[in-house]
Structure formats: structure tokens, C-alpha cells
Amino acid sequence: MNICVFLSAADLSETYTQPAREFAELIGRGGHTLVWGGSNVGLMKVVADGVHAAGGRLTGVSVDFLADKVRPRVDDMIIAPDLAERKKLLLEKADAVVVMVGGTGTLDEATEIMELKKHGRTDKPVVLLNTAGFYDGLKAQFQRMEDEGFLPRPLTDLVVFAEEPVGAMAHLEESLGVR
What is the pTM assigned to this prediction? Predict the structure, then answer.
């Protein structure tokens, strides 16, 4: 599988880096490819290091203004002219999407793929990895949107919340028939 991971480029505590390492190892050990923002800093670096160390492939999609932060020696690196093109390329290259902890950029990426799913523009599985309850508030908001009629499809058609890395990978494998 080509697994797009949306996540922070910030340096974060072990609370967030340990589950990210675990998921990265699952990607690599499974012979999968990480498709990510291409940065060699913060949580993005942690995940890329883990995938690489476990034998997986790396496909990065960065953007012009962050080109100085790209990871060297990857299997494939693309530099997009802007953030919109970067998102488009990340999603085109992915078979599935996992959203890890992150800020506004990560939230933007997560809601875009959910919006595409809502309108039937993609059927790729999407998992929000809810490390340490990071997305509990967002989950409650999405549930309210569904309960009050703002979502024309069930929330579970758009995204699955996983509390642990192994559950996220199991969902992707089941959804795509990979073993």
C-alpha cells in the first residue's frame, strides 16, 4: 500500500512520537510506502526514519517554500509549487490516508480528504490516529455534525478513529484487502 500520512513537522513529546514510531514500523515491516510531506524535521522525520529503518519506501511531496527542509535520499521526492498542488499530489499517490497529530495544516488535509469522500470523489480509507485522545474534541464535533444533519453520509463512511497504531493499520489492510 501507498499510505499517505498527514502529520506535524513539530518536535513533539514521547506521548506522540512513540505511537508514530510504532505506526512507521508497521508501514515498513509490511513492505508499504510512506507518502508524506517530505520534511526531515519533527514528527515527519520520526515517521520517515521509522519506515526507512523497517524496510519501507519513502515518497515525499514537499512545497517550494519548504524545499530547504526536505529529507535527502528518499525513493521519490516531488516539489510542488504550492500547498494546494501538494495536497493533490499526496492524495493521488496514496491508496489510503492516516492522519496523525498536527496543527492547522494537518486539520486542513484531513478535512479535505473527508470532503472528497463526502462527495464521492474518492473511496480511499481514512483513519484519524487519536493518540492520547488528541482528536477527541474533533470526534465530538464531527459526531454533532452527523447528528444534526450536516453530513449527508454516515461519519463512519468518511473516517475511522483508531486509538492505537495497530488498529489503524488493521483497518487499512481490511479496507484494501491487503495481508
Answer: 0.95
